[in-house]
DNA sequence: GCATATTTGTCCGTATGTATC
DNA sequence: CGATACATACGGACAAATATG
């Protein structure tokens, strides 16, 4: 029947093998963030390739956010700590190619923030609660739109961190910034601030009381209220109703 | 007080400007997937840079999965349709650097699949239900581990597509493959198949009945049952309990 | 503060294997 | 099959930028 399944022989480029080796060194912890790579000339000797090939490999690694090289730096390229920049980049292009509608992004935010609140209500530490308090205070005291937005971001980041799940935290941050960038001009109306602050206080109270489901419901509702003017009719309704449905099912 | 806030002047590399221009052309739809870029020699004329610079730019674009170039291709580099490959790559490195624990990944799967089921129960089409039926049938008829796994993936992908949210679909796929790769050896025990099939049938019945909350609960429970042997005690409990808490709160 | 050496960024020319017509 | 054009890879070169003594 099926004989020995051979692997297709892909002709692997020289620069790719360099990328693989350096990438592996970083992922295995052999190269730690902050450490330096050898200079390009050293690398071309170690890999026995030309400098062009070394440079193409470095450009790929740089595009992935793993290293950074500056002209004239005698220490060689620097190994960077992981940042979700690459994740952010690929999600942004995914959204830009118009593969993603604003409704889908907001819906995803509702899912992520709901989960974050659910977890944060149970796992939060006192210092994280203090951070949320401080963020709300800064929202209240904010003068410019920028200041208000920054405090808002800090609040949500504190909640995401309190969830104890770095993936939720990173994805929430990425999706939020994408959504905000997409409709940055239209929103941030000062007349919405009071309502926004009130919402954050309610949600925080629910977190403090350990009522994750309530906090999640408030978050979904707030997102729906805020973004529905910019979305087609009923784009978010399903998630709201179904979340409510979860409760009804439990009551039965 | 605060004078005019100037932008820090970053010396932008030549290859970066090329990347920006081509990237913009793709994102704006000026260059569509399947179309070809000019040859490297044409590009070095159009941008008035050297060949090396053009190549470094192409390597970056290739790393982002936007183009593909083959030696000898007279048509030039091909513009690729968007694939979540870049997303997959960055999430994988995020997990590999051990920034992410297996518990966090599984937890994230619980969140995503729960949301997918919630939406799919309301938005599914008849053809998508048929796909899920077919996938379960193939799971039942599967002989090898590989076949079973492929059918399993197809089922979950059908659910994710039925959610109508491409971001949920893509992220679910990415996180699932990462988790599976992390513990590929240990699992897939044949004795678990019957139970797995039974679970899928239950979840599909819930979807067909339009009971999203039930389907979501089943999915979370199945993930917890399946992965808890490989996780520290109580790593997933919070999410299960809190999801149950959503119901209790609704009953009150 | 300054001069120097090193490194990166960029350019040019060339050779080689390959895909298409 | 042959001719052509292409990508891959090599090596040498110069200017700008940077760190070091």
From TrEMBL, chains A, B:
Domain spans labelled HTH gntR-type: 12-82
Which terms are listed as keywords in the entry? DNA-binding, Transcription, Transcription regulation
InterPro entries from the xrefs? GntR_C, TF_FadR/GntR_C, Tscrpt_reg_HTH_GntR, WH-like_DNA-bd_sf, WH_DNA-bd_sf
Which GO molecular function, any one, fits this protein according to its record? Answer: DNA binding
Say yes or no: keyword Glycosyltransferase present: no
Task: Give the protein's recorded name.
Answer: DNA-binding FadR family transcriptional regulator
Query: What's the source species for this entry?
Result: Nonomuraea africana
């Amino acid at each position: 029947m099926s004989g020995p399944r051979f692997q297709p022989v892909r002709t692997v480029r020289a620069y790719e093998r360099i990328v693989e080796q350096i990438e592996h060194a970083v992922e295995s912890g052999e190269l730690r963030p902050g450490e330096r790579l050898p200079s390009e000339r050293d690398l071309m000797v170690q890999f026995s390739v030309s400098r062009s090939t070394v440079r193409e490999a470095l450009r790929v690694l740089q595009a992935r956010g793993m290293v950074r090289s500056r002209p004239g730096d005698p220490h060689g390229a620097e190994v960077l700590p992981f940042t979700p920049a690459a994740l952010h980049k690929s999600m942004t292009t995914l959204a830009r190619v118009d593969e993603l509608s604003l409704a889908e992004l907001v819906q995803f935010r509702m899912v992520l923030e709901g989960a974050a609140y659910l977890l944060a209500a149970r796992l939060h530490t006192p210092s994280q609660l203090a951070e949320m308090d401080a963020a709300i205070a800064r929202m209240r005291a904010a003068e410019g739109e920028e200041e208000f937005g920054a405090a808002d971001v800090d609040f949500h980041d504190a909640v995401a961190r309190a969830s104890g799940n770095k993936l939720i935290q990173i994805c929430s941050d990425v999706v939020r910034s994408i959504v905000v960038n997409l409709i940055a001009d239209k929103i941030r109306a000062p007349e919405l601030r009071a309502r926004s602050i009130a919402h954050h206080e309610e949600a925080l109270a629910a977190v403090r009381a350990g009522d994750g489901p309530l906090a999640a419901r408030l978050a979904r509702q707030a997102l729906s209220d805020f973004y529905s003017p910019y979305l087609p009719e009923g784009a978010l309704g399903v998630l709201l109703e179904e979340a409510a449905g979860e409760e009804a099912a439990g009551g039965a």
